[in-house]
Write a structure and sequence with these properties.
The protein is 80% helix and 0% strand. It has 149 residues and is an all-alpha fold.
């Protein structure tokens, strides 16, 4: 009998919440970054607005990808940059109500970071991070065993 669960059962159980958190974080940026630039920098020319929104979104997306890669490699502490990014999205979006944004854009800009925070704090995501940590420890033990003669 194999003590480790199969990859299929692991992915069936944890992949939806893992991808849901990734998509929620990416969609948070998709809606939040342009709304923030439009609200806080109203006199910025449209071409500069698009350029800075694109570059800022690209950099933040790279951060999301890196954090999720590190979580998948068994480093659960990398969830905290994701949590802080999603919290900053919420905190940056809340005051933009005074700039009269489109209601759907404003609502989605708040919905996706809150959904991402909910998914990151879910029992299943916490279980997944714990199991990935255990897998990392097993991998390190196997590597250490093969390095010693």
């Amino acid at each position: 009998m194999n003590e480790l669960p199969g990859i299929r059962s692991f992915l069936t159980q944890y992949f939806p919440v893992f991808m849901g958190a990734i998509f929620a974080a990416v969609f948070s940026l998709v809606f939040a970054v342009p709304l923030i630039f439009d609200s806080y920098f109203p006199r910025l020319p449209m071409d500069d607005n698009l350029k800075y929104s694109f570059l800022g979104g690209l950099a933040l997306t790279w951060g999301i990808v890196h954090c999720n890669f590190m979580i998948a490699r068994g480093r659960p502490q990398w969830v905290w940059p994701l949590v802080s990014l999603l919290a900053l999205c919420v905190l940056a979006i809340l005051p933009t109500i005074g700039f009269d944004p489109h209601p759907l854009s404003y609502g989605l800009s708040l919905f996706f970071p809150l959904l991402g925070l909910l998914l990151l704090n879910s029992k299943r995501h916490r279980e997944m991070r714990q199991k990935l940590l255990e897998i990392r420890h097993l991998r390190e033990a196997i590597i250490a065993r093969h390095k010693t003669p």
